[in-house]
Each structure stands twice: as structure tokens, then as C-alpha cells.
Hints:
- The chain is mostly helical.
- The protein contains eleven helices and four strands.
- It has helices spanning 6-14, 22-32, 38-45, 59-71, 76-87, 122-135, 138-142, 144-166, 176-194, 201-219, 226-245; strands at 93-94, 97-98, 100-101, 104-105.
- It has a two-stranded antiparallel ribbon. The protein has a two-stranded antiparallel sheet with strand order 3-4.
- The longest helix is centred in the middle third of the chain and has 23 residues, at 144-166.
- The chain is elongated.
Amino acid sequence: MELFDQEEWFALMAKDPDMPTPEEIEAIKEYIHGRTTADLAAQRCTSRIYLEEENPDPTLIWSLLESLAVEFPNTQENIVELLAAIKRRPNPIRDGKEHRIYNQRTFSDLGYFRADFFDYFTDFRRYGVETIEDALEEKNLKENHTREFFLPAAANQIIFASYPIWNLRNDPELEHYTMVLEWNRWEQTFEELIEHSQLSQETRGLLQQALAAMESVAQDPDRDDWQRKLVQYQAQYRASLNSARNP
Length: 247
């Protein structure tokens, strides 16, 4: 369950002075909603950066995309593609030279536009862990309204970032055994919650998708092909949901 729908969220971001311009935000929204391509959206949302009389901060685009990925985890695959498209943009020329930020070329070098997203931003993956931990706190599992708020957010973190989160076991600042034990605990708790008679069918379905993602990691922990498997599983889930609603 999300605090905002996407239209409301994008409208709020367009009013925030610390975000890109409303026109740039509109380009990103059009892409996320499937109404334009990643390359065209990248061109539109970076066009001001090419104007020599202005010097907007391109990292504002990253701030928007980071917030979008946190608020709506199902957009994360599209965000990766958009970041890759931005990184492919020609670097702006200023005074006859490629423009640089922090001594890095604006797009091709700048870390903010790396397309490997989760692997580069470890803190983002830790946010995903925190989201899951919050959802499984006893106080948040007691009441139906808190379960229905926190559990979908936790399930989405697993569905769309199962391998990146699992690979935190390789983070030198974290204990390997801790990540493995936590992963097993999450899996067991999700299995128990699926049997919870008061969970909505939609939330139960998300937890089933999360478990499928975790099973994929367990079978091949070094291979990241869950997105392909996710499409297959979601199609099966939608078919079963429609069958249950229309016996």
C-alpha cells in the first residue's frame, strides 16, 4: 500500500524547489507511465543542462529518481533503464571542453548516473532491509490496518530487489551470518503470514511473489534473472486472482 498514487506524488514533486523543473518531472512521469521511451525522456529531462547560460545541478534528477524508487518500488526497473539512457547522453560542451562536475564528465562519468543502481547504492539496499524489518515488528503485525500498510511495502522490496538485498551478505560492514539468518526469518514469517485469515487477497498475493523471489535466490544466489521470472509469476498470480474473483 502506498501513501500516494503516482499522479499525486509527481504533482507534489513538481512543487518542490529542490527537485527538477515541472517540465523535467513531466518527462520522467511520461516515461514511467509508458507514454515515451527512455531515450526521449532522458533527452527532455536533461535539456537545460546543455544551455551554457544556465548550470542546473543534474544531481537533482537523481534525487527525484531515488525518491520515486523508494515510494514506488515497482518503478525501479524503469528507473535503471532511464539512468542508463541519461548516462548515454553526450556530455555538454562548455568553453570548448566537456563540462565536468566534481571533475567528472557530466553524464558518462558521474556516479549519480551509474546504471547499476542497487549495486552502487548500498544505502538504498539497507533502506529495503529497514522497510522489511519495520513490517515484521510485532507492533505492526497486531492490527489489520498496520499489516496492510507495512507488508505490501516489505513484499515489494523483496520482489524488486531480492538479489541486491541478498548480496548485502558480501558487504564488509555487515556480518555474513546475520544477513543469512535474517533472510531465513523473513521467509518463515512470510509463509506464516500467508496463512493469516485476515490478510487481504492482494497482500497475500504480494507475499507469495516475495517468497517466489526468495526461492529464486536460494536456488541460484549468484544469478540475477529474477525480473524475467517475476513477469511469469505475476501473470500466473493475476490469472489466479481473476479466477478467484470470477468463479
